Amino acid sequence: MKSRTAAILVATISIARIALAGGPPAELYTLNCWGCHKAHAEGIPGTVPRLRDSMGDFLHVQGGRAYLVQVPGVAASSLSDAEVAAVLNWLLLTFNKSEMPRNFKPYTAAEVTRLRQNQLIRVTETRDELVERLKKLGIRVPDDELAGVPAAVAAPAGH
Fold it and tell me: Is it true that domain 25-154 has CATH number 1.10.760.10?
């Protein structure tokens, strides 16, 4: 039993050390986002937005790129701007490749710094507006059922 406890402690310390050192984006996602958005970015239907197969869609409309940085869970995150950029790029390239525009440019720390200064207040309304723009382009965001979900539920702080 003691060896199992020691192994868990060593693993926990290793993960924490990676995160504190600004570890790889997958570990940062696991430690900061996974609890709500789940292991494969599938979210929780009706309460937590799905990131998989939908984030990349927002890059097709004006305001969508900023939206991904300005939702409260990202803008108020304890991650540094460089870490936010790394996690967003990792999510997009890992779970959203087919939805992204061909001319995708990865987020940079400087861009995140600039965009993060304007945290969204009208999260649900902004998202609904972006989804409407996407629909006009013939793009349906898979988690449309979140339209009308209160902002505190649709974008919980810390994610």
Answer: yes
Task: Tell me how far CA of residue 116 lies from CA of 8, 18, 36, 73, 120, in angstroms.
Answer: 36, 24, 21, 11, 9
Residue type present at position 28: L
The residues spanned by each domain of the chain are 25-154
Which tens digits make up the pLDDT trace of 108-128? 999 999 999 998 999 999 999
- Weakest mean pLDDT among 34-38, 49-53, 152-156: 152-156
For position 107, what pLDDT does the model report?
Answer: 98
Alpha helices in the chain (DSSP H): 2-20, 25-32, 34-37, 64-70, 72-75, 81-95, 109-116, 123-136, 151-154
